[in-house]
Queue: 2 jobs
Job 1
Amino acid sequence: MARCSRKVNLEIHHKRRDGGNGLENAEVLCEKCHINTSTYGVKGTTPPAFSPKVKLEALKRAGNRCECTRVTCGH
Ligand SMILES: [Zn+2]
Ligand SMILES: [Zn+2]
């Protein structure tokens, strides 16, 4: 399964809407992969925003690259 390697327009995605705003619920995704997630733009519960600290930690953990390995994206 190929990992997306884009490094631009990175956003922090909530893995689970009810999973809170901690690092364990954060996934670094580029804009294209973010839009491709099943919950993107779907109305419903808005998860709490990530703090700048968690965003930085998530980007560091991901090596400043998109973390997406979803096959549906076709990277
Ligand atoms: Zn991506
Ligand atoms: Zn993707």
Job 2
Amino acid sequence: MSELRPVSELTEDERWMEWEKAYCRFETPEEEVRKFLKRLQHLGAQAWPLESRIVEIFCGRGNGMVALERMGFTGVEGLDLSARLLDQYSGPFPCRTGDARSLPYPDASRDIVIVQGGLHHLEVLPDDMDRVVDEVWRVLHTDGRFVVVEPWRTPFLNLVHGIGGIGLARWAWDKLDALERMTELERVTYDQWLRQPDLILESLNRRFGVEKRIIGWGKLKWVGCKKVGSTTLSGCDTTSRRP
Ligand SMILES: C[S@@+](CC[C@H](N)C(=O)[O-])C[C@H]1O[C@@H](n2cnc3c(N)ncnc32)[C@H](O)[C@@H]1O
């Protein structure tokens, strides 16, 4: 385990740099791509048209886009707040530095928006979440899809953080140490996210019908279809469902 400075001593910028360091230590790019491929397949991405206009928001260093490229998708873009992380992406797709609460795309111009592990970084719930959901809804075509994969409070997640609380386990397992370091550095937003599953699902359900909702292994995997009035064009369930 490396020498770690207490989070309270870090400036906001240092906190983000530390977080990015831990994030890059957590998984190699190749491990991350394999994880994304598995998730996308689990969420039914093989059935999406390969020419779909896809935006990956909160895309970090872009390995979600690498996975989409390997699946054969051709119209992918990425957006993230961190120019430092975006610089690590070297694939063919365009990326922009930007805030997902105010998307730089025209209305109804995209088919699929994906977020993996980004929403739990939002500082103000539900306001920031509602802003992202409204923006995704706005940029999606009428039969567009919103794909969300985020941490979720499950027994497995409790177990992982329980083990992560043991200093010796962190010392012995660098990946666990990196995960716990990221969690320490994002503690406020991470905890408020995990505490409010109903609020989060309500925010999604306001604008989207549910096509898939899978909860397990510490994750929510969710696919929603854009609601137009009280219906969706792609036949999703438009009723709100509780976690
Ligand atoms: C946990 S990382 C996830 C990166 C990538 N999706 C992945 O799974 O590897 C969260 C990302 O969200 C970005 N981020 C945080 N707030 C954001 C915002 N308001 N708009 C866009 N990106 C944001 C951070 O820069 C960071 O890259």
